[in-house]
Write a structure and sequence with these properties.
mainly alpha, globular, membrane, transmembrane, EmrE-like, DMT family transporter
């Protein structure tokens, strides 16, 4: 086997075969399957896009919100895992290495929440948003470090999509020590999210969505609980309206958002998935306009078009890379 072929085989994508009359899409999956995956990804992006508006409207500390959305998701998944023999058997059958990778993914998700949400109080929302959405850049770089050479279209699409986010947020990096610290935390959140996506893609090669998500969210919940306790963050005493918003956030952003991202990363791959997450920024702006009456800036729609164009390039690059494998 050539070195180039070995590098391509290291990409965490499923080994899907198709018949001679069956066209292939991203990661070699049938076109119909890819369309389903992209539809699920669109639902996931819509779910996570509700996150920022809901957090802005929820009267609870940021870290407490992060803890409860994961804890409630674990609570919802527990009966499914305990009472469905298939999921119980899958959990018992997970190997040590795979389990450790799932735990590591949960730890990175906890880091993502733990450093990004506080950054919103230290630097501008625009700077924090732009820096945390560097995820696809770090994903592509990490893939390169693992020996995979992303096609030029993937690099170009990633850069174009990120340009769309910069256009929308209008980055205004500050030189104050507090703001710089907040910028650093947001950047760390983007790196952690990239590791989370990559590890999730690796685990999902052999583990189902429910089992992986359960281990991941449980790890995230435990670590965020420790962070809240160490930081003296209040975890209760909220109004009924706040608890309702936390429940909606769990269903929309966690169970539909992150869980569906964990579902599709196996078929679409980490580059496409992480680039698509950039759509959360204009999605949140549009939802805030409809729900909170916060009119999006004039550049929201052109920025959305630029991000979509970048995502299309990444998908095309993934197809060509697979076709040449």
């Amino acid at each position: 086997m050539s070195a180039a072929r070995a590098r391509r085989d290291a990409i965490p994508t499923p080994r899907t075969t198709t018949g001679p009359a069956e066209a292939s899409g991203v990661s070699g999956a049938p076109v119909a399957s890819v369309r389903t995956e992209l539809l699920l990804l669109a639902v996931a992006i819509a779910g996570v896009s509700l996150s920022a508006p809901l957090i802005a409207a929820t009267a609870a500390p940021a870290l407490a919100i992060a803890f409860w959305r994961n804890a409630m998701a674990v609570g919802a998944l527990t009966p499914v895992v305990l009472f469905r023999p298939r999921h119980r058997a899958e959990l018992r059958g997970i190997g040590r290495r795979t389990a450790l990778l799932a735990v590591a993914a949960g730890a990175l998700l906890a880091v993502h929440f733990g450093v990004w949400l506080p950054s919103l109080q230290m630097t501008s929302v625009a700077s924090s948003t732009a820096l945390v959405t560097t995820t696809p850049i770090w994903t592509t770089l990490l893939l390169r470090l693992r020996g995979h050479r992303p096609p030029a279209l993937v690099w170009a699409g990633t850069a174009l999509a990120f340009l769309g986010v910069l256009t929308l947020t209008g980055v205004d990096l500050s030189l104050s020590p507090r703001a710089l610290a907040g910028d650093g935390l947001a950047l760390a959140g983007g790196v952690a999210a990239a590791g989370y996506v990559l590890l999730g893609a690796e685990v999902r090669r052999t583990v189902g969505t429910v089992a992986y998500t359960y281990i991941c969210y449980t790890t995230t919940t435990v670590l965020l609980l420790a962070a809240c306790l160490c930081g003296g963050v209040s975890l209760g005493g909220y109004s009924g309206e706040t608890w309702l918003k936390l429940a909606v956030l769990t269903i929309a952003a966690q169970l539909l958002g992150h869980s569906l991202i964990n579902r599709v990363v196996k078929g679409l791959g980490p580059s496409v998935t992480s680039t698509a997450i950039l759509l959360e920024t204009p999605g949140a702006a549009l939802i805030a306009a409809l729900w909170l009456g916060q009119e999006p800036p004039a550049v929201a729609y052109p920025a959305l078009a630029v991000i979509m164009a970048g995502l299309a390039l990444v998908i095309m690059g993934g197809r060509r890379d697979k076709a040449q494998a």
